[in-house]
Structures are given as C-alpha cells and as structure tokens.
Amino acid sequence: MAPPPRPLPVPPVARAARGGPPRLPLATVAATIALLSAATGACPAVCRCSGGRVYCNDRGLTAVPEGLPPGATTLFLQNNRIGDAGIPARLGRLPALRVLYLYANALEQLPAHLPPALRELHLQENNVRGLCRRALARAPLLERLHLDDNSVSAAGIEEDAFAENRRLRLLFLSRNHLSSVPAGLPPALEELRLDDNRIHTIPLRAFEGLPALRRLVLDGNLLANQRMADDTFSRLGNLSELSLGRNALAAPPANLPRARLRRLSLAANAISHVPAGALARMRALERLDLSDNNLTTLPRGLFDDLGSLSHLGLRNNPWFCGCNLAWLRDWLRRRAPPRLEVRGLLCQAPARLRGLPVGELRGEMDACESPAAGPAGGPGGGTSPGAAAAAAAASPAASPGAAAAAPGLWVQAAPGGALRVRWPPAPPGASLRLSWLRPGGGAVTETLVRGERGEYVGYSRKAAALEFLQRLEEAKATYEEGLAREPGNEQLLQGLRGVEARLAGFEWPGEVLAGYGRLWVALKDFEWP
After folding, report:
1. Model confidence over 214-269: pLDDT tens digits?
2. Residue 30's pLDDT is what?
3. Distance from chain centroid for Cα 178
4. Where do the segments described as Disordered lie (predicted)?
5. Which domain holds residue 520?
6. Using an 8 Å Cβ cutoff, are 317 and 288 in contact?
7. What pLDDT shows up at residue 371?
8. How far is it, in rounded angstroms, from Cα 134 to Cα 97?
9. How many domains does the chain have?
10. Which of 207, 296, 315 is nearest to 255 (CA)?
C-alpha cells in the first residue's frame, strides 16, 4: 500500500509582540488577497466599485466593460454610448445583479442577455422600438421596468411579451409611440405610466386582469369620451390615482373607480360640463384637478360626498359668477382652510366681477344672468394651417423677435432657455400634435396640446433636469416618511436605496453646466390629428 502523501509545508507563523494575534508572512498575505480577488472579481479599471455597487456611468463607453465582479448587485451604466452590440452575453451571467441602469445610451432593442436575478431595469432615453418576450423571460423576477423616452410602438410589443414577468409591479412607458394600451399586462402591476403617447382609443376590457393596479397615468394622449369603453376604469377597484390631463375629454369619463380613488386629474381637457353624479361616492378622494378646461359652472351638490378632499384645482376656467355658482361659494366657506386648499376659482364673467375670487363674493352672485354664448377664452374660428414641416434654431440670449417657421407657425426664444411656438386659432375642439426631433438622434418626442390655446412653450433640458431632480427629492422624502412609520419595511428600504442611487448619479446636462449655449429644436409633422 502506497504511503500517504506528505503534507505541504506550512509557513511558520510569527507571534506578535505581547501575545498579540499571529502575523502571517507577507507572501501568504499576498496569496490570500489574490485568492479573494479571483473569487469576488476585480473592479474594471474604468469603473469604481463599492459595496456591491459598480459605477461605470458617464464614461463614454460603447460596450459593457469586462471584468465585472460576479458579486455586483447594482450596475450603473447610464449616460454612455452603449448600443445593442455592446451588451455581451456575460452580462446575463452576473448571478447577484438586481438593479441595472442603462438609461441615456444608444440601445434600439431590449437587451437580450439580462441577469436572472434582476429586479429593476432602467432603459429610459434610448431608442428602444419594441419588447421581446424572449428577452424579458430571462428576467422572471423583474419588478420595475423603466422605458420612458423611447420609440416603443404598439406593433413593436410582442404578443404575451410579459408572460414570464408575473412579478412586474411598475411599468413606465411615458413618451413613446404607443397608439393603444399594451395587451397582456402582468396581474401584479401596481403602477402604469402611459403618458405622452398617441393612445386615442381604449376598447372593452383593456385593463382587465389588473386587480393590484393603484396608479394609472394617461396624460397627454388623444383620448375623447366617445373613444373610451364604458368599462375602461370600472374594473380597477383598487385604483388610488388616475391622471387624464391633456387629452380631449368633453366630460369626466363614465364609471370612474370610486371606493379607493384618492387623486383624480382631469386638467387641460375640453371639459365644458360635469354630470351631477360624476363624483358620487368618492369618499376617499383627496385631490381633484379640473384646471384648464371650459367650465363656466358646476352642478349643485357635486362635491357633497368628497369629505376627504384637501386640494381642489379650478384655475383657468371661464367661471360665470351668477346664482348657479352660489352654492359652491357657500360650500367653500363651510370647508375653509386648512381643511381644503382651492386654487384658481376666479370669476371671468360677468365683466363687473372679472378677476374676483368666488369665495369672497356675497350678494354679487344673487343675479341669475345667462352666460354669453361661448365661454371666454374658448376656441375661435379659423382654418387649419395644414401640414407643414419646419426646423428652427433659437438662442436664449438672442433677440426675442418671433420668426415664422412654417405657414401659420411661429417660433421664438423665451426666457430661461425655453422655446415658444404659436399658431393661428384652431378648429373647435381640435388638438395639435407637435413632434420634437432630438438633435443628432432619430428619437422623436410628441406633445399634444389643445389647439385653441394658440401657443406652446417647450422647456430646455435645464428645466426638465430640475423637475426630475425635484421628483427624486420628493420620492426620497416619501420613502423616509414611510420608514419612520415602518422601520423594518424591506420594500421601502429598497425604494429609498434606489432613489438615493439616482440622486448620487444625477448630473446636470452639459449645456447647463456650460451656461446657456444654443437651443436647437426641430419641429415636424405640424398637423391637426
């Protein structure tokens, strides 16, 4: 029988002075460090690694760097130039990666190699055109998917694209090219953002099978009452926030969810009347916004069931302060601040009361005069300017003189790096679609505005960045308030970490850091939809 192998010699261990812990020889320490590095993975030279987080953002990268540590939990790759070819298969072999930031890159497809443990994926500000079921199936644990500011169309979303994503809770598709609500949405969905798309019709059962949905944002689409099924919102029994601003509604939609709705925005539509029972039984409603519509009066008792209401937006309506609105004045006095904050309830007619707050009037509203035909500030006549295409360049420091950009379309610089677009009176009830072409890229952002307004102000990246930063600060405060009540809530802790990571990686746009610079805007497809 062969003798057992001799054990390898063990280097002598030196005893520290005064009986301290043993001191390993320098060679042993170096070997140990090398073994640990091989196990955990070294940090790529172009990145910075700290506690499971790998920061490779804002490096001008065209591909995901090699040598990512396998223990990485959060990977920051935003604000680079990474295209589809720059996403390697090895990215899908990071077993611990839970959060991936790839926004503001050059992607046109959903990454095909997603890590299996991924919970949160940020792809905003790319040029992604569609959603592939096979790619999404590689991340079955995905909970948050951010696809704002891309080019996703309804035709680009594969059938049952989300079939394997049963845990998806947040889906952000703001500012894309959707013409309809995506089908086959996962049942766990809690928040769905579809604002600033081209959605013009909502058919029967569009939101069927979404029992957990709590927040639905549909601002800035082409929705009108006659193109929305009666059951559109009635199936959403747990909905707490519904936003329908900047559409073409003539009245609040039928069958709004009532039991748990806390926030309802109908601002910037064409609402000229509100049925008497439109807000009945909405006892949980806290915030209601009816600003920027064509309302002259409201039916008596409209707010009787709104015992929880704390914010009411009524600004920029042609209110006629006669006896028909006296009930609202009395109701407001009973609900005096701080219980209720009311914004913008100022008389527009009759002329003797114009500009006066309704809540301060007394006997002046006793007269039962009839409003003049057509509310003040309503749509005027005029012919469509027709389709036109134009490109304009403006400098914030330049002369404010307007420049004609196309037949019936004027563009001029506005303070703060904004751009003002004006047009002639629109056809009654029409909406105007403005398409903004990004400089140096093919992505298009569309904006829908009511034609009778006569102008639109597009804000620079400075204003957009400031708004984004404010939203992050608000989200952080919300999570911190929740954790003060529930210190051990893991979901709140993860949310706070995510917001803090976004704040840590926040950078002002280069044009803001450099001062003002020139603002280039291309307008195309100027037409009445």
Report:
1. 999 999 999 999 999 888 898 899 999 999 999 999 999 988 998 899 999 999 99
2. 37
3. 15
4. 367-388
5. 379-529
6. no
7. 62
8. 19
9. 1
10. 207
